[in-house]
Write a structure and sequence with these properties.
The longest helix has 23 residues, at 30-52. This protein is 63% helix and 0% strand. It contains four helices and no strands. The chain is globular. The chain has helices at 6-20, 30-52, 68-88, 93-112. The chain has 126 residues and is mainly α. The protein folds into two domains: 6-91, Helix Hairpins (Orthogonal Bundle), CATH 1.10.287; 93-119 and 122-126, no CATH class.
Length: 126
């Protein structure tokens, strides 16, 4: 049996879920795109807060425990909204992968050079 491309499958599944709840990321005008990017950013911010709450970050509180299972769920929730945001921007799984490769190369180059100077142009090609 041929193994599915996992990232493409996640994008397919997220598109189906968005359509199920009435969000068509393919047919948005600029105003709708702006609103939905903000919606997804806010949702990811909340999920990141929930991820943060899964780890004992309150150094003054002794009652906290690391909830690894919940942390994993929150990471997956972040992926749901991140993929949706990518889809609003018209990005496919392949687009994300190619952009990741290019940005990863930029990040390595920044580390090689010591990253002593901010260059806003080093990611313009992505």
């Amino acid at each position: 049996m041929e193994q599915l491309d996992q990232l493409r499958e996640m994008f397919r599944m997220q598109r189906a879920l968005n359509q199920r709840i009435g969000v068509n990321t393919d047919a948005m005008d600029e105003k709708e795109k702006t609103q939905w990017i903000l919606n997804y950013c806010r949702a990811m911010t909340q999920e990141i807060s929930e991820l943060t709450d899964s780890v004992p970050w309150k150094w003054w509180a002794k009652y906290q425990k690391f909830d690894e299972q919940n942390a994993r769920v929150e990471v997956v929730d972040i992926f749901h909204f991140l993929i949706s945001a990518a889809q609003v921007l018209g990005m496919s799984a392949d687009d994300v992968f190619q952009a990741y490769l290019k940005k990863n190369a930029v990040n390595f180059q920044r580390q090689e050079s010591g990253y002593t100077v901010k260059d806003e142009n080093d990611s313009k090609h992505i």
